[in-house]
Amino acid sequence: MSETLTIGKALNLGLRKAMEDDAKVVLMGEDIGKLGGVFRITDGLQKDFGEARVVDTPLAEAGILGTAVGLAMRGYRPVCEIQFDGFVFPAYNQIVTQVAKIHARSRGRLAMPIVIRIPFGGGIGAVEHHSESPEAYFAHTAGLKVVAVSNPVDAYWGIQQAIAHPDPIVFLEPKRRYWEKAEVDVEATPDPLFASRVVRGGDDVTVLAYGPMVKTALQAAAAAAEEGRSVEVVDLRTVSPLDLAPVHESVRRTGRCVVVHEAPVTLGLGAEIAARVTEACFHSLEAPVLRVGGYDTPYPPSKLEEDYLPDLDRVLDAVDRAMEF
Amino acid sequence: MVDPVPGAAAPHHAPRTELVQLLTPEGDRVEHPDYSLQMGDDELRAVYRDLVLVRRWDVEATALQRQGELGIWASLLGQEAAQIGAGRAMAASDMAFPTYREHGVAWARGVDPLHVISLFRGVDNGGWDPVATGFNLYTVVIGAQTLHATGYAMGIQRDGAEQAVLAFLGDGATSQGEVNEAMIWAASFSAPVVFFCQNNQYAISVPLERQSRVPLYQRAAGFGFPGVRVDGNDVLAVLAVTRQALQAAREGQGPTFIEAFTYRMGAHTTSDDPTRYRLASELEEWKLRDPIARLKAHLSRSSIADAAFFESVEAEADELAARIRSGTLDMPDPAPTEMFDHVYAEQTPQLAQQRADFVAYQESFEGGEH
């Protein structure tokens, strides 16, 4: 059975399904109840599941995550909504020193099946702290897993898989793509959560992206095709753990690799991927692994964000540079 | 004496009348209009035994640290009554969320001292089972556990269970944002959690006056729930106050903040030197309120215990100390691969690869070790 869904609606239906399937699932966050969240991702859920399962919390992010830890210890599966990426930092202590560590600290006696939903990335004309890409902070922390979906199909299945998963997951939602639509087969067998996927085949260059940049990469590949270049696009889907086996296979064939993300380039995910691809595919590479990302600046005022964010031209420029080696 | 900070509050000395007390520092039993306590002689002797044994454990652990056998030790010296009183007030089904100094509570919950020692020896991050003991693992980051306690209490509410949570914190922790968030959550959801603050007067070296302009128990009013200050060196008063607060929580009356007014007789941990930040006279003054001496005086004077009893407790303490010493020295190091094994419930391919690489590296040395 297929439905045409936006990413936002797919998340809403995925959350609803997860709550129906498991009475221990509890949603927590600011404004997620009556309002349905500032992006309406939880729209209607409090009405149907009640205030104990869809909890409008006080305005304090550490409190949301810290109480989620206690609920998880009690056998619940909290799904915490952080309203915007830049607001996660008051909860950073709880996520990094507690959520990530408790399974190891207890030698596996205590599980932390917590999902931390974060609408992330720019492109919506917001003021500061509403457009950031904090994935590297979390991917660098042992004990956490980080997922970044790019389309309604992965949004629908991914949120359910993340909630059912036994480890804590930072679940990044591409907020500027919330309104993108696609057909979702709600009876299909989904791909595994921690698996990357080739979303467009090609022979000249492998372009890697995740979350909001997948669409940009696909647009760049389409534009490159008009110029006779064959670009393969891989949607990483998971940031930590990375699933690079399909990437290595692709790069061994194309000999060229470009990594695209919105986060600042320095010490971003692209650096990690470049190192790993170089290590695994050194003898196949025709060019160094190139990175396209945000600049090493605070996220700029919205009138400048189109200059800051990678667009298809910057991706194409990197493809050209890779081909010139 | 440092110059006072402009605008800083003058040091306050709480009037003694604020303190809930059932046993005077001289060991006289007194009544309190709000808190009563009926205890049989056996139970009184058992409480005394607890106090003596945890102090002996603490002394032995401090010695082991000085001899290089523990990386560090956080001494509870002086806080035995606060911890034994609180721990004994809990029902078996209640859950404790400790900091890293609650050895007395661990004892009252039946946690083996060697499990606690293993954390400070660097063998693990706490070897006991938090679910089986109702005593969570130690939390080193200040105040973080108060939110865990509140969330756990919210889980109790959802389960409709008759249980309560006892969240431990120190005076310094009350400055943390997360502790304030925990109290806001607890109040807003009327969660069955009791905040048990051991005000031992210092956050490492910084005195209470730098944390608060008001007595800590008065802060509870601002969050909308009761605050009470109990003599933390009076094990009977701590037991009565905590028992009542936990019962209120179980009955749906929401949180209570208990300030156990006490004193840390030793250093914050074995790494600091309290002579740099406090006066010897202060220590001498608090020695007069020693929690063990006062209960001993009461037991003797009331003929609840005799010399033979006190001797038997001392002998038992000697045995415990010997067991802690030999158990510490005999403690095996963990298997090196263990660091990879519990990072995730579901292992990641990257970490599995690192583990395999590590094993291969280890095995590359003769005999599998280097």
* Gap between N and C termini of chain B: 53 Å
Strand element count of chain A: 14
Instruction: Give the count of helical stretches of chain A.
Output: 12
The arrangement of helices and strands of chain B along the chain is HHEHHHHEHEEEHEHEHHHHH
Average pLDDT of chain B, to the nearest integer? 93
CA-based gyration radius of chain B: 22 Å
Task: Characterize the largest beta sheet of chain B: strand count, sense, and whether it forms a barrel.
Answer: 5 strands, parallel
The biggest beta sheet of chain A, please? 7 strands, mixed
Relative strand content of chain A:
15-25%
Please characterize this protein's 3D structure:
The complex is a heterodimer of chains A (325) and B (370). Chain A has helices at 7-21, 45-49, 61-73, 92-99, 102-105, 135-139, 152-164, 213-226, 245-254, 269-281, 305-308, 312-324, and strands at 2-6, 25-29, 54-56, 77-81, 115-120, 145-148, 169-174, 181-185, 197-200, 205-209, 231-235, 238-240, 257-264, 290-294. Chain A is α/β, with parallel strands linked by helices and 325 residues long. In chain A, helix 2 (45-49) links the parallel strand 2 (25-29) and strand 3. Chain A is globular, with a radius of gyration of 19 Å. The termini of chain A are far apart. Chain B is α/β, with parallel strands linked by helices and 370 residues long. A 5-stranded parallel beta sheet of chain B has the order 1-2-3-7-6, sandwiched between helices. A two-stranded antiparallel sheet of chain B has the order 4-5. In chain B, strand 4 and strand 5 form a beta hairpin. Residues 1-16 of chain B have low confidence and may be disordered. The A-B interface holds A 26, 52, 57-58, 60, 62-63, 65-76, 78, 90, 93-94, 97-98, 102-111, 113, 142-143, 145, 165-167, 194, 240-243 and B 97, 124-126, 129-131, 136-137, 139, 141, 144, 146-156, 158-159, 177-178, 181-182, 184-185, 188, 338, 341-346, 348-351.
